[in-house]
Amino acid sequence: QQSKEYFNEKAYPQAISGLTRLLALLPEEPIEVQSRWVLAQAYRQVGEWEAARDQYRTLASAGNANPYQADAQLQFKELQQLLEQFTMPPLDTQAIRLTLEQLPAGGGFDEGIKKMKADGITTLLIDLGCEGTGFQTDQYKVSNTPRHLLDLRSLLRSYVKRSHRLELLVYVGVNLRCVGNWHDSPLPEWRDGTYNTITRQVQDSRFFDLFHPEYQQFLDHFLTQLSEESVDGLVFLDDFPMGVYDGVSRSGLSRFQTAFGVSFDPVRTFQPGFDPFRASKLSSRSIQGSDAPEESSVFWRWAGWKARERLTVVEQLIDRLRKRHLTVQCGLELHPHGLTDPVRALIDYAQDAMEAIRRPFSFFFVRPEIDRHSSSDQVSAIEKLRRISTKAVLTRLLPVLDDPRRVWVSVPAERGKRISPGTGGSSSSLLGEFPAGIGVVHDLRAFS
Fold it and tell me: How many angstroms separate the CA atoms of 414 and 442, rounded?
């Protein structure tokens, strides 16, 4: 009775605690059916979707008929479908990646998405870049570019509504180290720390500290605000990765020391001539019993911790987001080296691809290395390198995932050429030898 009162008063955690104890003590009592139904409803209210589904399943499949059975069957079926929707992107995603500045205002947007739809595009990926309030130096730079979170929400609301009208999905690409720029007055202590090899001192970075608790709260708020505009998904981009000298903020160093019981001193470690790749080899040998400098061993622990802790922060953000918005899909960008050269990825980009795959991401987005740095006009050479890079990445990634739909591959759009998915274009020939269902992201940012 008290648990039911807690539920009616919307004190759901207390109701869950009391009902769980009751069912453990008196599993066969007549009150069990009603308790299980109320428990399922309470779980649903706090966003514990899997737990709610399990309670509905028990009620729906009970051998003895009960007054909640029919409703439980409907609720179970609905929740199961929603959970599957979160974990798996649609088949054969064909996305266009654009920046906010590239999206036309007014009727131009409607005409643009009609053409996209006619060309076989299923998804619009809006890349927020690294701008926002903090990066806008010229207030007259772009008239239709939002400068504040409220403006961004209003713009997204319009884009999502008009896109959904044509059954076009909308995903938002977010660089978490840049989100603080959407705050009107981000706190100075939110800035990441980076080691300056010239001054040999730690200084404030232009990017934000993923390990700072208050900045994490703002990230949570920001992602929730985006999700409330009915976006279909978020892609955690990594255009501005945490490099070898980044992440040395007060929060990061303190959390590392708490985890390992040793401190990481960037000034002591990053001496002139420091070679992180040599440090990793020395650390590997030290595990086997040889003597390696203490700094090398600690650095390797630091590099591994930084990559895993970054994933943990993102995972916690997703977990909180899912409690409010179950069906918002969350994808993570993986650097190609995370799959082809994991030591380099760990050091240069704070990425651990195999660890990321074990985390609850709906899908993974990969962009071949050649498209990140090349400025060559030798199209045939670039195309060959892109093919080699894509094949190397997919050959390693697909076997460890349960469905090709969970892979999105970036393909640069060609100037002057219309995008026609599935008609033998570059993306079709590039992915032809792999299983059907892989998503393709046509990157149009170069034409902004």
Answer: 9
Query: 186 phi and psi, to 5 degrees?
Result: -60, 140
CA distances to 146, 162, 410, 411, 437 from 389, rounded to whole Å, are: 36, 36, 12, 12, 19
Higher pLDDT, 64 or 161: 161
| pTM, 2 dp | 0.87
- What angle is formed at CA 350 by the lines to CA 349 and CA 351, rounded to 5 degrees? 90
CA-CA distance, 194 to 324, in Å (whole number)? Answer: 35
Task: Please name each of the domains of the chain with its CATH number.
Answer: 2-85 (1.25.40.10), 88-447 (3.20.20.80)
With beta carbons less than 8 A apart as the criterion, state whether 227 and 325 touch. yes
pLDDT tens digit sequence for 179-228? 999 998 999 999 999 999 999 999 999 999 999 999 999 999 999 999 99
Residue-wise pLDDT tens digits, 99-157: 988 888 777 888 989 999 998 999 999 999 987 544 444 443 444 567 688 889 999 99
Residue 442 binned pLDDT confidence (cut-offs 50, 70, 90): very high
In 119-168, at which residue ranges do the beta strands (DSSP E only) sit?
A: 123-127
- Asked if 384 contacts 352 with a C-beta cutoff of 8 angstroms, the reply is no
Both tokens of residue 402? 């349960």
Element (H, E) at 235: strand 233-236
If phi over 0 gives left and psi between -120 and 50 gives alpha, with beta otherwise, what is residue 143?
A: alpha
SS3 272: coil
Residues 6+ apart with CB under 8 A from 247: 192, 193, 209, 210, 211, 306, 350
CB-facing half-sphere around the CA of 444: CA atoms within 13 A: 18
- Read off the pLDDT band of 426 (50, 70, 90): low
Contact 83, 50 (CB under 8 A): yes
Residue 266, C-beta contacts closer than 8 angstroms, at least 6 positions apart: 195, 202, 245, 248
